[in-house]
Design brief:
The chain is about 0% helix and about 15% strand. It contains no helices and 11 strands. The protein is elongated and about 65 Å long. With about 200 residues, it is mainly beta.
């Protein structure tokens, strides 16, 4: 059984089941056999969706609007995941999270308004307002904090933590923005630091 409520919601659905379409044109383009889709909000999941997209959740106006075959996506928020088509396994929460990114972005987690806004790559984690909004083709980055970002839009394997902090290049870790003056390894400063090399920078 399906739950459908709203003008043209689930318009093309015939034999698919266990779907929820609520809102004007929610799930309008869904094909006849799609299952286990939740689409709530005006214009959410309006693409010509196939069974490859089963088990996806789209909540918010225009959330996942273009998805066709991307599987197991969760997009919550106005225009979250709006450009996705065949990209799958994304979790996008927040207004415009990954809304202008690539159609095939996959395995990303973007939480926050405009998080991973333009991402086309995969395996990125961005948490915070506008976190990772510079990324386009970049992959395997972790960004935590408002406006944290990689060093370039194609950045890879960068870990950046802290308000408005920016990465220093691929395969690097940045803790804190330029205002940070001290870094403690453990609360009491007594943790052992393991490293093969130490560089000192003086200005």
């Amino acid at each position: 059984a399906n739950t459908i409520l709203g003008w043209n919601a689930g318009l093309a659905l015939q034999t698919g089941h266990n779907n929820v379409f609520i809102g004007r044109e929610a799930g309008k383009g869904v094909t006849t056999t799609v299952q286990n889709i939740i689409s709530i909000g005006h214009g959410s999941a309006t693409g010509v969706m196939t069974t490859a997209a089963n088990a996806s959740v789209f909540i918010g106006a225009s959330a996942g609007a273009a998805v066709t075959s991307g599987a197991a996506n969760v997009a919550v928020g106005y225009q979250a995941g709006k450009n996705l088509t065949d990209g799958g396994n994304n979790v996008l929460i927040g207004q415009a999270a990954n809304s202008t990114g690539g159609t095939s972005a996959s395995q990303n987690v973007g939480i926050g308004v405009n998080a991973l806004l333009n991402a086309e790559g995969s395996n990125n984690v961005a948490i915070g307002y506008a976190a990772g909004d510079l990324i386009t083709s970049g992959n395997q980055n972790i960004l935590i904090g408002r406006s944290t970002d990689v060093s370039a839009n194609s950045g890879a394997n960068q870990t950046v933590i802290g308000y408005n902090a920016t990465g220093k290049g691929d395969d690097t870790v940045v803790l804190g923005n330029s205002s940070v003056t001290d870094v403690y390894m453990a609360e009491d400063g007594q943790a052992t630091l393991h490293t093969g090399k130490i560089n000192s920078f003086f200005t």
